[in-house]
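W.,

You were right to be curious about this one. When I first looked at the sequence I had no strong expectations either way, so I just let the prediction run and decided to look at it fresh. Below is the sequence, 207 residues in total, followed by the output.
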Amino acid sequence: MEFKTLRNVENSFKQIRLYAIVFAILCILVTSYAVWQSYHFAELQRQKVYVMDNGKSLIVALSQDASINRPVEAREHVRRFHELFFTLAPDKNAIEGNMQRAFNLADKSVFDYYKDLSEKGYYNRIISGNVQQRIEVDSVVCNFDHYPYATTTYAKQFIIRSSNITKRGLITSCYLVNSVRSDRNPQGFNIEKFRVIQNKDEEVIER
C-alpha cells in the first residue's frame, strides 16, 4: 500500500512538472508575440507624420519610403537637364544661365560637350542667326537593376529660324549616380559620362 502511494506521488510530481514546463513555454510564446507586435506597432507609428492645422487640430499624413520615388525623381532629373541644356535663345546671357544650371546637374562630361560645341561656333551661330532652339523629351529609360543607373533619353529638337523649322531626332545616354540634394539639385542625382548618340535632321518645315 505504501509503495502504491509513493508511485502516485511520483506520477503527480511528473504531471505537475509537465504542466509547469508547458505553462512556461506558453508564457514565452505569448510574451514573444506581444513584444513582436509592440515593435511592429511602433514601426507603423513612425511612418505617420502629425501635422498641425493652423495650430488647432492634428492631421495624420503617411510617410513614404524615399526609394519608392527614386525612379520618378531620376527621370525628372534627366528631363530637367535636357530642357536646360538644349533650350537656347539668341541671347548670350540666357545661354550661359541655362548652361550653369545644367552643369549643377552633371559632371565634367557635359562641360566638355558644351566646350566642344562652343569651340565649333555653335552658340555664336545661334546668336548671330537669331535662332531659337527648344526640346521635347519623349521618354527617359532608366535601368535601376544596376548602379550607377544607365539612362537613355529620346527627344525631339526644334531649331527655329525665320525661314524654317528644323526638326531633329535626339538620343543621348548617361549614367546616374546618387548625390546630395540641394536647391540647385533637388532630385539628388548627378549625370556622368554624358554623350549624344544620335542628332540628325528628320524634317524641315518652311515658314
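Here's what jumped out at me. The chain has five helices and six strands. And, maybe more interesting for your project: The longest strand covers residues 189-206.

Coffee later to discuss?

I.
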